[in-house]
Amino acid sequence: MTNIFMPQQFHRRIVNSKIAIIIILVLAILIVGGVWWWTQKSTPEAPKTIGTPPVDETAGWQTYKNEKYGFEIKYPNDASYSVQDIGDDLLYYSNGHIQIKHVVIDSEYPSNRIHIEITTDKNILDNVRLDSIRDRIPLTEKSINNEIFTKFQRLGEGDGYGYLIQHDSKYFLLESVWGSQNEIFEKMMQTFKFTK
Known about the structure:
Protein Transport Mog1p, Chain A, 7-stranded antiparallel beta sheet, 3-stranded antiparallel beta sheet, 3 helices, 10 strands
């Protein structure tokens, strides 16, 4: 006699197979979830640390302060640097604008020489823009100590670059006179701030 399944018996086997598969899946999920929970519970939580504060590379540097114009900037504290404060309210014609203050943070290394000009002559901004157009180097903005500076680059002898900002009806131009990028000048710029 041939064994022929009845439709009802066939249906029960399919249902039983589906139930078995579901039970196996539920057990697998419970086992995996239990193992995960146990490893999370038994693994000690790493102590929460507040990030270490960044090292201030300029902490031992000297500070040039100018009370009259209300700014300060740090420069390296070594024998290769000196400050040349070329008079106050000295008016002379230079590069097409009147300069009322000129400070040089000088170094025996020309690539680290920094010029600071302060003027009330708004033509300084036009001169920087014209240099940018002539040399096809775009001006960019950079935030330093919550102040927005215009970054410029000059082509020619030394290929210097620098930053310009207007503050309290004066223009402050800070320039690295040699090279298109100067790590020490950038660190110095991070210390520049207005004091009034």
